[in-house]
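Running this now, will post back.
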Amino acid sequence: MDGEINQRLEKIEAVLDTWLPAAPDSGWASRVFPGLAPEFLKDLILPCRDLLSRGGKRWRPLLMTLVCETLGGGDAALPLSPLVEFCHNASLIHDDIEDNSDQRRGGPAVHLVYGTDAAINSGSFFYFLPLACVEAWDVPAERKAQVLEVWGQYMRRLHLGQSMDIHWHRDFDSLPDPEAYYTMCGLKTGCLARLAAVLGVLAAFPEAGGRAPRTGEAAERLGAAAEKLGVGFQILDDVKNLRTGLPGKKRGDDVVEGKKSLPVLLYLHGGDRAESGQRRALVKRCFNRARAGGVMVPEVEELIGALEAAGVLEKALTQGHTLIREAAEVFAAPSIAGLHTEEEGRRLLAGLVGLIS
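Update: finished.
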C-alpha cells in the first residue's frame, strides 16, 4: 500500500512543483502574471518554496484525489491539489507570525528567515496562487466558477476559526467549553480537509457539475467525515505536542503560545468548584511564565505534568481517535448517497487514515 500511496503523492508533488517552481521561468510568470514581466519573483516565492520543500504529510490533497478516485473519477481532481495544499502552507506562515513561533518543520519560522513583512506578503500570495491553477484548468467556465465559489466559502471559514483561536489565547479569561473548541477546530483545521473531500466529489462528476442531488449529498457526507478527520488529527497533534513534541517543533511550545487546546480545556473545566479555581490559577501562571521565558522554563513541565496526572491527555487522545474512526467508517462504505465506491479507493483511503492516526 505504501508504494501505491507514494505513487499518488509523487503526482501531487509534480502538480505543486508546476505551480511553485524552484526557479520560475517566463512560462510560469505569464500564467501567474499575464501581461506582466514582474521583477522580484524570487523574493515573492522563495519563502513559500522554502516552507513547502521542508516536507509535510500532503494528506489533504491526497485525501482529495483518493475521494475522487473512490467515486470513479480517477485523477480528475489532481490539478486542484494547490487549492488545499498551498492554502494550508499559507496558513502556517501567518500562524507562526501571529503566535510568535520560532520553528516550523525543523527550521526557523519563515518570518524569522525572510522578515515579517516578506513573510506576510508571500503568505498572502500563497493563498491566491491556487486561483491561477483554476484559471488554467481545462474545464468549462461553469465548473471553474463552482470550484471558486466553494473555495471562497472555505477560505472565509478558515480565517474565522483562526480569529476565534487568536481571541482565546489573547484573553486568558475567555474560557471556551470543549464544544466551542470543536467548532473552532472544525473551522480552523477541519475546513481544509472538508474542502479537499468536497473538491474530490466535484471533480469526480463533471457531467452534473457536482449539482445533482446524490452528488451534493455525497459531498456533504464525505465533507463532514473529512472535517472529523481534520479535527481528530489536530487533537492528536495537540496531545503529541505536550507529550513528545512534534517533528520540527519544540515539546510544549503550545504552552508558550498560551494555546487553549482540548487537553487544557478539559483540565480547566474539570473538578469541583474549588479545584476548578486552583486549576485556572495554575494554567494562568504557567502560561504567563512560559510566554515570558520560553519553552525551557520549569512551568512548562509543571503544566504538562498536571495535565497528565488529571488524565486529560489520555481523554483527549481517545476523543481524537474516536473522530478519526468515525471518519474512516464513512470512507469505507461501499456506497455513499447511493453512489458506488471503488474498492481500491476505499482501501487506499483506509491507508491514508492509518497514516494520519
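The CA atoms of residues 190 and 227 lie 4 Å apart. More later if anyone needs it.
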